[in-house]
């Protein structure tokens, strides 16, 4: 049996929105600062995030193991919009943009 202790790495599950907070995007990364920069600068112009302008961080969760982060990302992606908003509002009641927490100014 595999026992999960606190991992030595950092992985993040995150939710982005657009400027009007009408679109939600859930992703996973090992470097949230870099990933926010990629989203903000439309690193992949054909992507969902570029198309809908989802560059604003409104939720994140930190994990020490990639397996747990991926599992959580899938759980969140399967939630309804209403349940996602409830989850977000538990830590960010006003849906404020959190990009600056990762030294990324918008």
Number of domains: 1
Terminal-residue CA separation: 44 Å
Shape: globular
Low-confidence stretches: none
**CATH structural fold name:** GIY-YIG endonuclease
Name the CATH superfamily assignment: GIY-YIG endonuclease
Helical percentage: 25-40%
Output the number of helix runs: 4
Beta-strand percentage range: 15-25%
Task: Tell me about this structure.
The protein has 106 residues and is an alpha+beta fold. It has a single domain, classed as 3-Layer(aba) Sandwich (GIY-YIG endonuclease). Helices cover 35% and strands 20% of the residues. It contains 4 helices and 3 strands; from the N terminus they run E-E-H-H-E-H-H. A 3-stranded antiparallel β-sheet has the order 2-1-3, with helices on both faces. 24% of the residues are buried.
